[in-house]
Amino acid sequence: APVLALSGGVGGAKLCLGLADVLGPDLLHIASNTADDFEHLGLTVCPDIDTVLYTLAGLSNAEQGWGLAGESWRVLGALAGLGVDTWFKLGDRDLATHLWRTGQLAAGASLSAVTRDLVERLGVPAHLYPMSDDPVRTIVHSDEGDLPFQEYFVRRQCQPAVTGFSFAGLQEARLQPDLAALCRQPALAGVIICPSNPFVSIDPILQLDSFWKILRDRAVPVVVVAPIVDGRAIKGPAAKMMAELSMPVTALGVAEYYARHYPGLVGTYVIDHSDANLVTAISRLGMEVELAATIMREREDKQALASFCLELLRQ
Ligand code: FO1
Ligand code: CA
Ligand code: CA
User: Which of 84, 141, 264, 287 has its Cβ near the most Cβ atoms within 10 Å?
Assistant: First the structure.
C-alpha cells in the first residue's frame, strides 16, 4: 500500500532514502516543503526538493547537506568577478537544474510537472511532489526584524533570535493535487513525518489547506520521527529555535508542540533510545511512543529506521 512521507531537507531526505530502499519506487510518495524556496539571480531555488532529489539520486553532497557532490564553482567565481554578491552559492552543475527548472516554469509548467520530470531524468526511486504549486514563503520573525527565510538561514547564518514564523501565500495556496488525492485514498497505509524542522519544514505542509485535519479526520495512521535527540538537532537550527521560543529543547518539547497545534494527529512518536527517560511524559500527550536508533549515519541505519516506521504503520 502507498506511504506518504512529509519532508524538509537533510534529515527528511535521509529517511526518504531508507524508505525508498525498503518500499521500492512505486509505493513511496514524498511531499516536499517549498516554503524555503526563493528567487535568486532570476532563478527559482527549491532547496528541500533538490536535497531530496539529489539524495535519492545518489548525487548529493552529504557533508555539505545541500547541492551536488563533486561540484565546481566557475560561474560563481565569474559572478564575483562582476562584483555580484555571491552570498548564496549555486554550483555549476546545480545551476543546470536551476536553469532548466526556471525555463520550464517560465514556459508555463507547474512546479509539480517540473519536479516529476527531474525525478524521471535523475532516476529518483519515488514519487516526489512539492507541497503546493503556488508560492509559499517563510518569513522569520526575529529580534532583528522580519527576514525572508534564506536571508535568515544563509546570509545571517541563523544568528538572529527567532520570535515566530509566518508563511506568505499559504492562505491562497492549494495543496498539490496528487497529494490531495492521495490522502483521500482508502489504500493509503499512513503518513511518516520525517525528522525535519517542525517550524519551517513540517508546519507549512500540515497547514496547507488544513492538510493535517484531512489526515486526522480520516484517521490516517501518522508516525512522527523526533528531530531532536538528546537535546540536540542532528542538523540545522531546530534546537536553537526551540530555545529562543522558550520551549524545552527535547523530543518531548517537539511532541508537546505537535500535540498542541495538531490535536489528535500523531498516532506514534518515535524517539531515540538515548531519550528513553521521556517515554512516560510523551505518552501522557496521548501518543504511542516507540524507541529506535534515529541517528542515520550509514545506509543501513536509514533502512532500519525506515523499516521500523513502516512496521508501525502496519499495526
Ligand atoms: N546553504 C548554505 O548555508 N549556503 C549556501 O550557499 C547554500 C546554497 C544552496 C544552493 C542551492 C540549494 O538548493 C541549497 C543551498 N543551501 C545553502 C541550503 C539551503 O538554503 C538550506 O539548507 C535549506 O533551505 C534549509 O533546509
Ligand atoms: Ca529546509
Ligand atoms: Ca540577536
Answer: 287
SS3 of 87-143: the string is CCCCCHHHHHHHHHHHHHHHCCCCHHHHHHHHHHHHCCCCEEEECECCCCEEEEEEC
Measure Cα distances from 7 to 13, 42, 51, 109 in Å: 7, 26, 10, 23
User: What whole-number distance in Å separates Cα of residue 86 and Cα of residue 70?
Assistant: 19
pLDDT tens by residue, 246-266:
999 999 999 999 999 999 999
User: Rounded CA gap, 202 and 230, in Å?
Assistant: 21
CA of 153 to the centre of ligand 1 (A): 8
Give the atom of ligand 1 at the shortest distance from the alpha carbon of 46.
13
User: Three-state DSSP class for 266?
Assistant: coil
**94 — phi, psi (to 5°)?**
-60, -35
As for the ipTM of the complex, it is 0.94
- Number of Cβ atoms within 10 Å of the Cβ of 234: 19
Q: Nearest ligand to the C-alpha of residue 32? A: 2
- Report if pTM > 0.90: yes
Burial-class residue 14 by CB neighbours within 10 Å (0-12, 13-18, 19+). Answer: buried
Q: How does pLDDT run across 129-166, given as a tens digit for each residue?
A: 999 999 999 999 999 999 999 999 999 999 999 999 99
Residues with pLDDT less than 70, the chain: none
Distance, CA of 51 to CA of 60 (rounded, Å): 7
Q: Give the integer Cα–Cα distance in Å for 281 and 248.
A: 13
* 232 CA from centroid of ligand 3 (Å): 21
